[in-house]
């Protein structure tokens, strides 16, 4: 379903089940780096996290490769 949405230049809802790959996430949310930069600015101690941040934020900050 995610690939179907992306093939139509669409987005998918970020549900609590994190099925999307890092590449799918990047394609669906092209401004993710700007969003993550803002998150870093307002929460530099990374106090407010959840599973989404564990999966998509950490790999993008540490490297540009998928887990």
Gyration radius, in Å: 12 Å
Q: How many DSSP helices?
A: 4
H/E topology pattern: HHHH
- Percent strand equals under 5%
Ends apart, CA distance between termini: 21 Å
Q: Extract low-pLDDT stretches.
A: 63-67
Note the main sheet: none
Average pLDDT works out at 84
- Tally of structural domains: 1
The total count of strands amounts to: 0
Helix content: 40-55%
Broad shape: elongated
**Structural class by secondary-structure content:** mainly alpha
Describe the protein.
The protein contains four helices and no strands. Helices cover 54% and strands 0% of the residues. It is mainly α and 67 residues long. It has one domain. The relative contact order is 0.17.
Features:
elongated, 67 residues, mainly alpha
In short:
The protein is mostly helical and 67 residues long. The protein has helices at residues 2-7, 22-28, 32-42, 51-62. 4% of the residues are buried.
Topology:
Blueprint: H1 2-7, H2 22-28, H3 32-42, H4 51-62
């Amino acid at each position: 379903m995610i690939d179907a949405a992306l093939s139509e230049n669409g987005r998918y809802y970020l549900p609590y089940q994190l099925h999307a790959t890092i590449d799918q996430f990047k394609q669906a949310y092209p401004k993710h780096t700007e969003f993550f930069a803002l998150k870093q600015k307002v929460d530099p101690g990374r106090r407010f996290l959840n599973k989404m941040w564990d999966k998509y934020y950490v790999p993008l900050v540490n490297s540009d490769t998928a887990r």
